[in-house]
Model the fold of this input.
Amino acid sequence: MVHNTYRAMVVEEIGDKRFSRSITEKSIDQLPDGEVLIKVSWSSLNYKDALSASGNHGVTRKYPHTPGIDASGVVAESRSDAFHQGDAVIVTSYDLGMNTSGGFGQYIRVPAAWVVPLPAGLDLREAMVFGTAGFTAGLSVMALSHAVPPDRGDILVTGATGGVGSLSVALLAKLGYAVTAVSGKPAAEQFLKGLGARRILPRAEAMTGHERPLLKTVWAGVIDTVGGEILASAIKSTDLRGVVTCCGNVASPDLPLTVFPFILRGVCLVGIDSQNCPMAKRRKVWQHLATDWKPAQLNDICREVTLDQLDEHIDLILHGGQTGRVIVKMDS
Done:
């Protein structure tokens, strides 16, 4: 049964560069057009959500708006032959939560082309422990593992306490890789080792020598989530024909380095675009996450909150205080 109204976080512009967040009742009729109406069971908190929820016009052009780039739930209505009422589904990326009303509402309406059937082996809650962060980690692992087998050497993961970083550590460890995790949070060492990291590298050490054109080879591969000088140092420290993936810029969008790692060592730098990933590849990654890549510690990576508790966690992630994942139970 579809209710006429539902609860959602709404971000409003209340003055010059001033925004407010509140949990309000919205009407189903206010949702955008789309073939599939989904009753959202779970969502999750990402850095992009926090930017949208804070009035960042680089993420969301117009307000009022409901953020949430991730959602899992059950199809309530469908005008597409690909999906039927009662189907369990996942929606991440595309324009969800950016300029399309997102997963911090109890209903979303989206194009059928955005919807992924929930694969066997995952429940709706687990799908949001992964969410965009886990999907991005999965794309990164896929790109790295195609060229760098586990016996090639150590893999570096930067920003390891964040969503993408922590899930990358867990996925790589599940696949037998020796993982070194970069973190600026000394208190997170036990958390990271519990996910499978064999070594913790302080952030300052990960940046050592970043101004030099090349560094001593250390890493067979790298999953970078932060950009900037840490990514530059990682590339300069990567061994012959190693693979470095790049998916974030929370440290900096700049990349200060020469071409030497690429032309003298054959290092491959792979950009990870989770937002517009083709559907066939998207389903393949989700299938891996549900089966052979699924870490046993998945529930150790997340903290569960309600929609009413979400506001404080938005501020926390903006200030770099989040460890692992925050998932949002939408029916409470």
User: Anything to note?
Assistant: DSSP finds nine helices and 15 strands in the chain. The chain has a mean pLDDT of 95. The chain has two domains: 5-118+299-329, 132-271. The first strand starts at residue 5 and ends at 15.
